[in-house]
Specification:
The protein is α/β, with parallel strands linked by helices. 38% of the residues lie in helices and 15% in strands. The two termini are 22 Å apart.
Length: 196
Amino acid sequence: MLLWEPEPTPMKEVGVYDVGIVFTGITKGSKSPNDRVYFNQGADRITHTLQLYNEGKLKHIIVSGGLGFQQVGMSIAAERLKSFLVMAGVPDSVITVEPKAVNTYENSVESAKILKRDFPNQKYLLITSAFHMKRSALCLAKQGVEFDEFPAGYYTDRPSLNFDDIVIPKAEAIKRWETLFKEWVGLATYKVMGYI
């Protein structure tokens, strides 16, 4: 996973962007009560977006993602992330919700439509989980969009040579392999489908 995830970008090296594009997939839509946002792994996608906005590095935010594989009747994933941003003080007027996409390919297609229609020829920053950045970036680039990348939501820490880290088995290692394998299968499938 250390070899797969791109290095984090120091905040001081991030320029100013007209639009930050955030893909969903980090919230629990079926958890109740519905008076808050419940996050899964990868919440840094949106918390780092909030930090970038607060530091004046983003002028507008597109949050892309609909129901995905969730059941009808649940709230739209992008709406949940928007509600978090608004609760944290981001003005409603600087957030665009894209509610149709159900996967990474559709996130890219639908976000590209918004960018070309509402924010043509501007400076864009793609914000998504580090393990998911390769596939996301390839999909968005396929739509003819030029952008920079800001990976977030890391599974990895700094490499360690501690005895416990090297010798003692850890359950989370299995989860990381599962996540990595799923991403590799996703990349291969998207390549076959012509999405990237």
